[in-house]
Here is the input.
Amino acid sequence: MNQQLKIKAVWMRGGTSKGLFFHEHELPIEIPVREAILLAAIGSPDPYGRQINGLGGGTNTTSKIVIIAPAPDTDFDVNYTFGQVAIQQSMIDWTGNCGNITAAVAHFAIEEKLIKNPVENGIQLVRIWQTNSKQAIHAHVPVQDGLPIYKGNDKLDGVSGTACAFRIDFLNPSTGATLPTGNCMDVLILSDGSKIEASLVNAGNPTIFVRARDFGLTGAELPAQLNYPELLQKIEHIRQIGAWVMGLVEQPEQAALRPATPKVALISNAQPYKSLDGQQLQKDDMDVCARIFSMGMPHSAFTGAGAVAVGIAALIKGSIVAQHCSASGDMVRLGHPSGLLPTIGRLDSTGKQAVAASLIRTARRLMDGHVYVTL
Here is the structure.
């Protein structure tokens, strides 16, 4: 038969990312068939890097898949599975979470009537089980007439326009130990024998923090200034070595099969710079300056789960983030290429294990209907 597959889907923005949402029951159970459909829907693999034949936008912030199911556990409303889709490869990485997209999950759960204890007006608690990282997340969404409040005056740096912001709490945001090696700082030995200091932190997503100055950088560079082969190759090498040291893979080269995690972030002191929209940021506007790489490319803002890791690492004495962070409390104002992102963390009494983290995000449904794929 000459026809395309037609599958219900919703296109949503969460924070500074966009993703294609599916109800799990709308997708085939067989994983190879399911992944083939999801890759075709997004438009991967695309050797041109544009995803013109699908809905992805050819960037690491718009090549994302979300699968939602009602949670059988009474402590949660929905099970949320996240897939980061490679653009030029036939690969979906299911190893991590997207903190930004989590905001859209909360809206989706309310709009799709998946909440076990719905609130008509006020603050709706959305209880999310993140299946990739095995983490509990609570979102506190303002609602009116049983729907999220969409209009508001809250500005999210990296997103045009304004919306109604809400808090997302990541409960026990570490899968296992926050410091996988037990150290606030480790020395990674690279293949050429050179060494680099790094803080390996597992909170939100596994993240490798290194100093920008160790790469001859100020840390205030914008994405275009970080997008050159020599730097990207070194960042990927550090990512693979760090994944191995963190115990995420048995051999460093196996990290190439999980390009979404861990991520690498460059850390520097607070400093003035112009953001991507031309806004002049001052040193006093932020507590720390950071640049993160996602799927091998510099991020245009900052990953949400990466911001969770920054907020936690800033509280760990001796970590690279703590050494460069001027915050005096548990809230950190993170300076990124598109502006600022506040993040809050909390540790247990040992000072080494994360017990909670919070972000403020916005979200919006952009389109719903059907996605068509040809297999």
Notes: The radius of gyration is 20 Å. The longest helix spans residues 229-245. The chain has a mean pLDDT of 98.
